[in-house]
Structures are given as C-alpha cells and as structure tokens.
Amino acid sequence: MQSPALPVPEAPSLVPPALRGILPLLIAIPTLALFHWSLTGSDFATYLLSVVGVNIILAVSLNIVNGMTGQFSIGHAGFMAVGAYIAGYTSLQLKEVALSFLPVSASDQVLFMLALLVGGVAAALCGFLVGLPSLRLRGDYLAIVTLGFGEIIRVFVQNTDAFGRALGLSGIPQYSSPGMVFFWVFLVVLAARRLAGSSHGRSLWAIREDEVAAEAMGVDTTGYKVRAFVFSSFFAGIAGGLFAHFVPIINPGSFTFVRSMEIVVMVVLGGLGSTTGAVVAAIFLTLLPEGMRSLFGALGTEGSLAQRVDQIRMPIYGLLLVVLMLSRPQGLFGTKELWDVLPRWLPRKRRGLA
C-alpha cells in the first residue's frame, strides 16, 4: 500500500511583513520630505548625500544580476551613461516648457520625473538588446559583452555633437535633490526585496545555485535572466539621470570601466545577494575618499589633495577585496539581510542582561 504524500511546507518569505503592502510608501514619503527640508542650505552635504544615494541605486540594481541571478556584469556604468545622457538631453529640450496648471516648481519636478523615466526606459531597452543574445549562453560571456557595451557607449557619446562630444553635456537643469535621490533609493530597495521574496525571485535564486537543475525543473532560465537584466538596467539608467541633474556637467570620463568596477566592488564587498550588504558597502566606499581627504588635510598635505586621493583609492579598494576574500569570501552579509540577523541577536542580548 502506497503511503500518502506528505504536504510540502511552504517556502519562507524573504520579505519581512513590514515591507509588504502600501505601508512603506506611506512612511517613506513624509520621512523623505523631512529629510529634504533638514538639508536646506548645506551644499556639500546635499552633494555628498546625492552621490551616496546614486551609488546605492547602482549597487542594489547590479546586485540583482550579479548576486541574485549569479551572472557577472561589468558594464553597469554603460547603462548609467545611457540614462544620464538621455535624461539630461530630454531635460534640456524641455527646459523652456512649463505645465500651466501647476506651480513652476511642481511643473519642473514633473518634467524631471518624465526625463528620468525616459532615461530609465532607454537604459532598460539597451539592457534588453544586450542581454537577450548574451544571456542565452553560460559562463563569462555576459561580462565580455557588457564590457564591450560600456566602451561602445563611452566612445559613441564622445563623438556625438548632441551630447557635447568629449567636453560633455552642460546646462542641464539642476532639478535633483537628496529627497528625490533617496526616494528612488527607497524604490529600488523595496523592489529588490519584494522581487527576492516572490516566485520570480526564487527562480532567480535557483538559476544562481544551479542553472542546469533549474532548467531541468522547467524554469525558463533565459527569460528570467533577461528580465532581471532589464530590471537592473532600468534602475542604472535612473541613477544616471539623477546624477546628470545634480552635477554641473556630465562627460564620458564619468562612465569608464573603472566606474563599473567600483560598483562591482560594492556588490562583492557587501555580499553577493544581500541588499543590505550592497547598501552598507555603497555608503562605506563612497564616504571613504572623503574620509581620506579629511585625514590628509589633518596631516597638513593639502597640496594636490584630490589627485592623491584618486591615486590611492583604487589600490585601497583592491586591498579591501583581497582582505575580504581571505577573511570572509561571502562578503560582509553573505546572502543575509539585516532582519535575518537582528531577531536572533536581540533575544540573546536580553537573555545575557537578565
């Protein structure tokens, strides 16, 4: 007699209850408005926080491909460049346009959001065109293709009159703000975590662990990888659009291979597959050069300070990676998130104090 089949336990959700529904959005909007208001008048803090936010968006979006799906893309700066130039060019064309039924400031923000979405969609389209042929293959083909794509984009904008050639694109309206940047940080983190906890995300995790086994179980590996790549490219384009609207000028030198590797370092340092790790690593590696500048200033080495920081930044990044790979190969957080650690840590502390 055949024994009855045991019920299969439901897979635990990777998204905490606090991130479900519309509650996060209702909390985030007034918090970001207060955050934006508190920074009024501090130009340096505004710029630095905007750079931190853009790097968080880039790291979290790349983590979807490199961490969650197990692929290896090293051309993220190329998609950032697409979003930056397309969004910047769109804003320049709409510079004299105003929506008559809205106040001027509100009209500017609506048009700014439109430019961001145009840049994000353009980057997502490029991600689809790049990813569709290369993601059908296995191995390091994606890394080679994305590396080539990043260089193609850089050379293209460097030789295009509409994008300012090597001098760059200037005169873009400075519509961006830390509040807007961190609104998109909130969106990309929320989207990444909801994706990780969905059935779609579980298919991506399965592809990461064993692509052959996932395909044998009926997972459309190519389709899922392409969708993850398009998702990642879209947010890279958004990050580029935000970047273009708070710097005086964008030029091809801002989107080189070194820039792509900086983002890869953030993902690897934080832990492949960990959104929390990507956020923490992006904040740390963005503030590290400023910390070194302050240190050199305290030591009385103000001469050629920026040049010295730029010269030693990449060796320090490399040293951090070497030390990390030797001491903790899985990264700071591995595949865990902050809420995976705190619930087990806090009770132990309470028991120890009791």
Report the average pLDDT across residues: 82
Largest sheet geometry: 2 strands, antiparallel
Structural class: mainly alpha
Percent helix, as a range, is: 55-70%
The strand line-up of the biggest sheet is 1-2
Number of helices: 13
Output the keywords.
single chain; 354 residues; mainly alpha; 2 strands; globular
In short:
This protein has 354 residues and is mainly α. The chain has helices spanning 23-38, 43-68, 76-93, 104-134, 141-158, 178-196, 199-209, 211-216, 221-244, 257-270, 275-298, 305-327, 338-353; strands at 169-170, 249-250.
What secondary-structure arrangement, pairings included, does this model have?
Layout: H1 23-38, H2 43-68, H3 76-93, H4 104-134, H5 141-158, E1 169-170, H6 178-196, H7 199-209, H8 211-216, H9 221-244, E2 249-250, H10 257-270, H11 275-298, H12 305-327, H13 338-353
Antiparallel strand pairs: 1-2
Helix pairs in contact: 1-6, 2-6, 2-9, 2-10, 2-11, 3-4, 3-5, 3-9, 4-9, 6-9, 7-9, 10-11, 10-12, 11-12
Tell me what you see in this structure.
By secondary structure, this protein is an all-alpha fold. It has a domain at 18-33 and 41-255. The protein contains 13 helices and two strands; from the N terminus they run αααααβααααβαααα. It has a two-stranded antiparallel ribbon with strand order 1-2. Helix 1 packs antiparallel against helix 6 (178-196). The chain starts with 22 loop residues before the first helix and ends with a helix. Residues 1-13 and 348-354 have low confidence and may be disordered.
